[in-house]
């Protein structure tokens, strides 16, 4: 595309938050060197909608047990080389309280698909709410619909469940025994229960095309997401996708910028995966539409074992260091850490 055509499409996205699948696809297929205007307008939209505040979400990776076998993920059941751990209820609550003391206003409880008892999760939610008042996001994968309801009633505010790839074929190829419909149904049900919902994709999974990524963005619009995340695919040695190509910073940034323009009222994280493949990755995303960072507060001794992908940054750090490091990244960009919970921008 020539610059004139690119500008026309970006301006339209900026104005109307709407592009056709073909138009989205043509931008995603374009060389990033020709897309300065896209990144710039996404940054401008972020300023208008979110101002200069960045929301931090403290993430606790509380169990690396998983019953699924996702082809890309190091936590997959068949990876027998991974030493597994599961935090007890008291440890999760204590870590949340420590996060609250560090100033975090949201805690994200994340795990593999470990059948952690639903009732116990509900007790954890209630206790965290009662003792810290923090917003609580759950990211536990798919559970039965009664569990989603129980946790919502216990006080959980948000649920993060990436749909990963908007192709039924590839979704079901990479998630043996799982169904694309159930993933989407879960998201719809969670929204109906009053959760703020987050979803998103892995960028550059083998076989993914601009056509599919355009479909992903349209799906995100249809789902009326409150949060949309995208991180580059990082191949893990103990998975069927070992030896395939790492995702690119460029595609991740294009997707991030288009997310901001097409879903202006969403929270968009600068992902840890992007920071892993590029030292400046999170900074770049924060300048291309992102307004959220999710620092790790998991106890140092477990970080290495929550190996969804290799070489994850900050595995040798402790929570307080991560908070400081993120704080200085944010101020170096002329932005500041938000003082509020950062609930959905849609409400
Ligand atoms: N079990 C939960 C949490 C999964 S881990 C769930 O199913 O939602 C959180 C995210 O890590 C996943 O949604 C996926 O998008 C990402 N992820 C997993 N393996 C990855 C890899 N090899 N490269 C990049 N991202 C990966």
TrEMBL record:
Residues 52-274 form the Radical SAM core domain. PROSITE patterns: RADICAL_SAM. [4Fe-4S] cluster binds at residues 66, 70, 73. CDD domains: Radical_SAM. Binds 1 [4Fe-4S] cluster. The cluster is coordinated with 3 cysteines and an exchangeable S-adenosyl-L-methionine. S-adenosyl-L-methionine binds at residues 164, 183. One of its GO terms (biological process) is sulfur compound biosynthetic process. Signal peptide: none annotated. Pfam families: Radical_SAM. Its cofactor is [2Fe-2S] cluster; [4Fe-4S] cluster. GO terms for molecular function: 4 iron, 4 sulfur cluster binding; metal ion binding; transferase activity. Keywords: 4Fe-4S, Iron, Iron-sulfur, Metal-binding, S-adenosyl-L-methionine. InterPro entries: Aldolase_TIM, BATS_dom, Elp3/MiaA/NifB-like_rSAM, FeFe-hyd_HydE_rSAM, HydE/PylB-like, rSAM, rSAM_sf. (3R)-3-methyl-D-ornithine binds at residue 139. PANTHER family: 3-METHYLORNITHINE SYNTHASE (PTHR43726), BIOTIN SYNTHASE (PTHR43726:SF1). This is [FeFe] hydrogenase maturation protein HydE. It comes from Halanaerobium saccharolyticum subsp. saccharolyticum DSM 6643.
């Amino acid at each position: 595309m020539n610059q004139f055509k690119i500008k026309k499409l970006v301006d339209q996205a900026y104005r109307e938050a709407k592009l056709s699948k073909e138009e989205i696809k043509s931008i995603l297929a374009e060389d990033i060197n020709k897309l300065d205007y896209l990144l710039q307008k996404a940054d401008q939209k972020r300023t208008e909608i979110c101002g200069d505040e960045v929301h931090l979400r403290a993430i606790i990776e509380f169990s690396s047990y998983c019953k699924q076998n996702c082809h890309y993920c190091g936590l997959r059941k068949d990876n027998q080389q991974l030493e597994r751990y599961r935090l007890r209820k008291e440890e999760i609550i204590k870590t949340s309280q420590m996060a609250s003391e560090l100033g975090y206003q949201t805690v994200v409880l994340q795990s593999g698909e470990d059948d952690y008892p639903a009732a116990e999760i509900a007790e954890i939610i209630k206790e965290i709410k009662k003792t810290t008042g923090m917003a609580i996001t759950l990211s536990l994968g798919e559970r039965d619909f009664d569990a989603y309801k129980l946790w919502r009633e216990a006080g959980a505010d948000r649920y993060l469940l990436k749909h990963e790839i908007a192709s039924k074929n590839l979704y079901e190829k990479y998630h043996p025994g799982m169904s694309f419909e159930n993933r989407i149904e879960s998201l719809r049900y969670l929204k109906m229960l009053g959760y703020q919902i987050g979803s998103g994709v892995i960028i550059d999974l083998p076989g993914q095309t601009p056509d599919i990524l355009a479909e992903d963005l349209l799906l995100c619009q249809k789902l009326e997401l409150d949060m949309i995340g995208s991180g580059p695919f990082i191949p893990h040695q103990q998975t069927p996708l070992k030896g395939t190509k790492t995702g690119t910073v460029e595609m991740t940034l294009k997707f991030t910028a288009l997310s901001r323009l097409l879903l202006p009222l969403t929270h968009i994280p600068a992902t840890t995966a992007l920071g892993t493949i590029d030292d400046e990755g999170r900074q770049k995303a924060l300048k291309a539409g992102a307004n959220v960072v999710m620092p790790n507060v998991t106890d140092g001794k477990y970080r290495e074992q929550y190996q969804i992908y290799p070489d994850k940054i900050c595995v040798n750090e402790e929570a307080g260091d991560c908070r400081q490091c993120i704080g200085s990244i944010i101020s170096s960009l002329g932005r500041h850490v938000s003082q509020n919970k950062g609930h959905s921008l849609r409400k």
